[in-house]
Design brief:
The structure is a homodimer. With about 400 residues, chain A is of the alpha/beta class. Chain A has 3 domains: about 170 residues, MoaB/Mog-like domain (Molybdenum Cofactor Biosythetic Enzyme, Chain A, 3-Layer(aba) Sandwich); about 80 residues, Alpha-Beta Plaits; about 150 residues, CinA-like (Maf protein), CATH 3.90.950. Helices cover about 40% and strands about 25% of the residues of chain A. In chain A, strand 7 and strand 8 form a beta hairpin. The longest helix of chain A is centred in the C-terminal third of the chain and has 21 residues. The interface between A and B is large, with 90 and 90 residues.
C-alpha cells in the first residue's frame, strides 16, 4: 500500500514557509502500514494541482493533499481536484451551513468569498472542519483514494485523525519506528558496525542518518500487530545497542543534554558550567531539558580573561604564560567553577571559534574541554572544522558528551 | 528560469525528519530570480532518484538534489544521477584525496566504504565539501544544470554558497537581492506599512517573511547592470526603512546581536549578561557575532536561586518575598551583574520557560527582562506563548532588542 503526499502553496515554493504537514502525514500513514513513496510540493496553480493529483493517483493507492482550501483567489486546490476528476464543482449545502455556523458562533459575518469553501467536486464527499472554515474533501480517482486537507497544521491534524484515519483501508500490517541516537562515531563508523543488519528489504529496515550533530540508527519494523512489530524492533535494537556500546545516548526523543541529566539525577549530583568560546551554549543546551534545575546549578560565561580570573579564580600568570586557549586554563576554569558553585561536576570550555583569531600553533577550531569531577580533572583537545556556528555547536556537544562518558565511566 | 528541488531520504518519507533544505534553496534561488516550481521528496532508491532527476531535467533549467551522498549502502543519489545520465560512476582522485585528508587531520582512519563518496558520474564535476566527507556533484542533463548537494543542512548551505551560487548569475542576468530585518512588529503590521510597494510584478519585487524570530522585508531588484539594480534597490530600501523606523535592525546578514554589538562598539561600551530561564542563550546569541569580545565581557547563568545571591548579590529575602521570577529580582540581577562585571550595560533575565512550574499568578511564559545602564534600570514584563524552546528564544531575542532600543534611545 503506497501513498503520495502533495503540499500546495506558493509560500512553500518561495521558501517562506517550511512544510511540516508531509512529515506528520507520513508518520501517521507509516504507523498504519502505508508507506509514503513521495512528497510533492506544487504552487497555488490549478493546472499544477490537477497534474500532480492525476499523476499521484496513477502511481499510489492513497493520495493526501494539503493546503489551498482557503477562500481567496490564490486557493485553487479544489478547482485542481475537480479538473483532475473531470467533475464540476458543486455546492455542498451541509458544508455551507457549517461555515455559516462557524462565523455565527464567533459573532462574525460570513464574507461572500467564503462560499467557495463549500464547493466540492461532484461525486466527492466533504470532510467536516471542526477548527476552521475550510472543509476537506474525500474523493476517488481511478484506483486511488484522494483526501484533501487544509494547510493549517492543527486543522489538518484534527481532520486527519477524526475523519481520514478511520477511512484508511483496514490493513493487517503495521510499522513501528525506532531511533537509536549516538554520539562519538562518524556515520560510516556506525554503519560499519551494523552493516550486516542494514540489508535492503530487511525487517526491521535499518538506516543511518545524521541530524543535529547526532548519528542516528533508524529502524522500521513491520509485522501483523504493533505488539509483534515492537517485539521484533526490541530484539534488533538490543543487538545494535550492544555493538555500539557507550556511543549510544538513548532512543527517540533523547538528546545528549537529556542523557547527562538522567545520569546526574540518578546519582543525585549537581553540575555547573564555565564557558569561553561557546558563550553560554553549553548552559543553554543543558537547560533545554525541562526539570534541569534538579541538577544544574548555573554557570559563568567567562568571555574576557579578567572574568576567568575574577569569577573562576584562574591565575592571571597562567593565562599570560599558556594563553587563554590552553589545556591548563581549561582545567583551571573547570576546577574553579566546581569550587565556586559547590557542584559535583563542572565543565570548562575554551577555544577559538573563528573566523579570526587563529594562529599556526592555535588554529581556528582548536578547543579544550575540561571535565572536573570528584576524582579530578580531565582535559580534551579537539580541532573542529567549520564555521563559527558549527565549531561552537560541536564544541558544546562534545563537552556534554565528555561529561556523559565521565558519568558512565 | 525555473528550478525543481529534489530531497532524497527515507527519513523524510517516513516522517522521521522534516525537510528544511528545500525551503532554504528555494529562498536562495528566488533571491537570484530563479523560481522553484516544485519540490519533490523521494526515498533512498536508485531508480526513484534516477526517475525524479530525469523528469526534473525535462521540465526545469535548474535541478538541485539534496541528500543520499553518505557512504552507506542506503545512500544512492550518486548512483541515481549516474543512471539518469546514462554514465558510469568513476573515481574522482581529487575528491578521494580530500576525503582521506578529512580523516587524517582528525586523526581518524578512513573506512573503505567512504571511497564511494569520491565517485561521480563520468563527465560530471565534483563540488568540494569543506565541512564533511561527501563531495557534491555538478552535472548537465539535457538542457538542465543539475547540482547534487549533501543532506546535512550546514554542509549543504556551505556548498551552495561557495560553489553553486557563483555558477548561477551567468544563467540569469542581474538580480540584486536585499533583506531588511525588523524586530518588534508582526508580519501583517510590517506588510500594512509598505502595502503600496508590495505589488505583483513590481521591480524591485517585495515580500515579507518571518524567520528566526525576525520579520524580514525581502527585495529582488532586476536590471541590466548590477549597478542599476543596486541603485533601484537602494531607493526603495531607503523608503522602507524610513517608514519602519526603529524596528529596523539592519540588512542582509544583520541579526539583533550584531546590531547591539555595532551600537556598543560605536560607543566604546561593554556588556555583561545574567540569565536564569534562558540558561545562557542570551550570551550565546551575543557571542555568535565574530569579534564580540570587543564589547562583551561575560555573564552568569544564575539558574539556582543561590547563584542569584552568591554571584549577583541578589538579596535572599527579596527572592523569598517576591519570588525568583519577579520584576524586583530581574532588576537586582541586572544591577548586580553590571557591578560584578564592571560593564556599562547588563541584561538580567528571569522567567518560567515551562512546560511545568507555572501558577495562575505566574503562568508558563511569564518573563522579566531588566536592562541596567548608565542611567539606571528598566524592567520589561512579557508573557510569551509556545513551547519551552520558543519561550526561551523569544525571551532572549526580546532582551537583546530592549538593550538595542536603550542604546538607540
Amino acid at each position: 500500500m503506497r501513498a503520495i503526499i502533495i503540499a500546495v502553496g506558493d509560500e512553500l515554493l518561495s521558501g517562506a514557509a517550511i512544510d511540516t504537514n508531509s512529515a506528520y502525514l507520513s508518520e501517521q500513514l507509516a504507523a498504519r502500514g502505508i508507506a509514503a513513496v513521495a512528497h510533492w510540493t506544487v504552487g497555488d496553480d490549478e493546472q499544477a494541482v490537477a497534474d500532480a493529483v492525476a499523476r499521484a493517483a496513477g502511481s499510489a493507492e492513497i493520495v493526501v493533499v494539503t493546503g489551498g482550501l482557503g477562500p481567496t483567489a490564490d486557493d485553487l486546490t479544489r478547482q485542481g481536484l475537480a479538473r483532475a476528476s473531470g467533475a464540476e464543482l458543486v455546492l455542498d449545502e451541509k458544508s455551507l451551513a457549517q461555515i455559516e455556523n462557524f462565523f455565527r458562533i464567533r459573532g462574525r459575518q460570513m464574507q461572500p468569498i467564503n462560499r467557495i469553501q463549500a464547493m466540492i467536486p461532484a461525486g466527492a464527499e466533504a470532510l467536516q472542519n471542526t477548527s476552521g472554515t475550510a472543509p476537506g474533501i474525500a474523493s476517488r480517482l481511478g484506483n486511488a483514494r484522494v483526501f484533501v486537507l487544509p494547510g493549517v497544521p492543527h486543522e489538518m491534524k484534527t481532520m486527519f485523525e477524526a475523519q481520514v484515519a478511520p477511512q484508511l483501508p483496514q490493513l493487517t500490517g503495521v510499522i513501528v519506528s525506532r531511533a537509536i541516537h549516538t554520539f562519538g562515531l562518524g556515520e560510516s563508523d556506525v554503519a560499519a558496525k551494523i552493516a550486516d543488519l542494514m540489508v535492503r528489504d530487511a525487517n526491521p529496515l535499518i538506516g543511518v542518518t545524521v541530524e543535529a550533530g547526532l548519528v542516528t540508527v533508524r529502524m522500521a519494523s513491520r509485522a501483523e500487530s504493533s505488539q509483534a512489530a515492537r517485539r521484533q524492533a526490541d530484539a534488533v535494537a538490543g543487538e545494535i545497542k550492544k555493538r555500539l556500546g557507550q556511543v549510544v545516548i538513548g532512543e527517540d526523543d533523547a538528546t545528549l543534554a537529556w542523557a547527562v541529566g538522567e545520569l546526574l539525577r540518578r546519582r543525585g549530583q549537581r553540575l555547573a558550567t564555565s564557558e569561553s568560546c561557546t558563550g553560554g551554549l553549553v548552559g543553554q543546551l543543558i537547560t533545554s531539558v525541562p526539570g534541569s534545575s534538579d541538577y544544574y546549578v548555573g554557570g559563568v560565561v567567562a568571555y574576557a580573561d579578567e572574568v576567568k580570573h575574577d569569577s573562576l579564580g584562574v591565575d592571571r600568570q597562567l593565562i599570560a604564560a599558556r594563553g587563554a586557549v590552553s589545556e591548563e586554563v581549561a582545567a583551571a576554569m573547570a576546577r574553579g567553577c566546581r569550587v565556586k558553585f559547590r557542584s559535583d561536576w563542572a565543565i570548562g570550555v575554551t577555544g577559538i571559534a573563528g573566523p579570526r583569531g587563529g594562529t599556526d600553533e592555535k588554529p581556528v577550531g582548536l578547543v579544550y574541554v575540561a571535565i572536573a569531577g570528584p576524582a579530578g580533572v580531565q582535559v580534551y583537545r579537539q580541532i573542529f572544522p567549520g564555521t563559527r556556528e558549527v565549531v561552537r555547536m560541536r564544541t558544546a556537544l562534545a563537552a556534554i558528551n565528555y561529561l556523559r562518558l565521565a558519568l558512565l565511566g
